[in-house]
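User: I'm new to structure prediction. If I give you an amino acid sequence, what do you actually give back? Let's try with this one:
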Amino acid sequence: DTLKSNILFSLFCKKDKTIYKFRISDIINIINNALTYDQNFISTPQQIKNPYTNIPFNKGELFYIYFKIKESPLLMPYLFHQLFIVNFDLEQYRLYNECYIREKSISNFIKSDNIIEKHKYILSMIADYFIYANISIDFFFPPSILVNHFNKPYLELYLKSVYSLNPDLKFNSSIILTQKLIRFHRLNPNYAQPFVTKKRDSENNIHLIYRYNTTINIESSNLIDNLLQNNNDNHEENEEELEELEEDEDAEEGLQDEGEDEYDEDEEEHQDNEELEHQEEDNDNLEESYQYLPI
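Assistant: Good question. You get back a string of structure tokens that encode the predicted 3D arrangement of the chain. For your 295 residues, that looks like this:
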């Protein structure tokens, strides 16, 4: 009974005098779908409706639902809490939360199974970034395979770079997408390109089979990251070694300068000693000369 009260609740509707039972997880999904509704990523939040009657809940019923969710062990939907803050005024809710709603709309689109729309956006992305990545997709390449390969992170980054209302996120997404598409093309230059194979049947007749290159070299991208990281590490080690060599050279130059100074001092002392010796010899010669002079 405790578990049941935590995940279910009943709501009495005055209009038709009927009690409706809801699972909290189901009502949360209904709330999120209504509050994040959009048309081409332009937020147009809808009123939260009773799934049994398709009639919007009134303000009193929304307050009741809010506190029932708050009492449950489930997490309160962020946007439903924002709607609660503005007293369930849908227009005020849209004005104050449009940026966040846009990001949720993009996230929901990426999680959806809308192959046709995703395929259209992916082709637009490839055309817009062709000057950087030079990726070419054959016209008859299967859309489902293309969407499977480019849905995340490429399409997600592209939609954020085009439709996000956050300027920093918009700019960063464009930069990261450019780098990823360039690397994708370098690793997979023949992706989505047709090639022909020959096959013989039992009667030895040759048949031409047209196929597409659908393989993606993903591991190599990780290898490149590792190589770049190793190159950076080696570059840092080389810089450290150069700094140590420069320090050793400076130390050697200092020792040489000290040695030269000591050598100069020794030479000066030696020259002084020689001068003293010469002076003493001169004195001795003078003394000797004096001795031999006649009196």
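You can read the tokens as a compact description of the fold. Here is one thing that stands out. The chain has ten helices and six strands.
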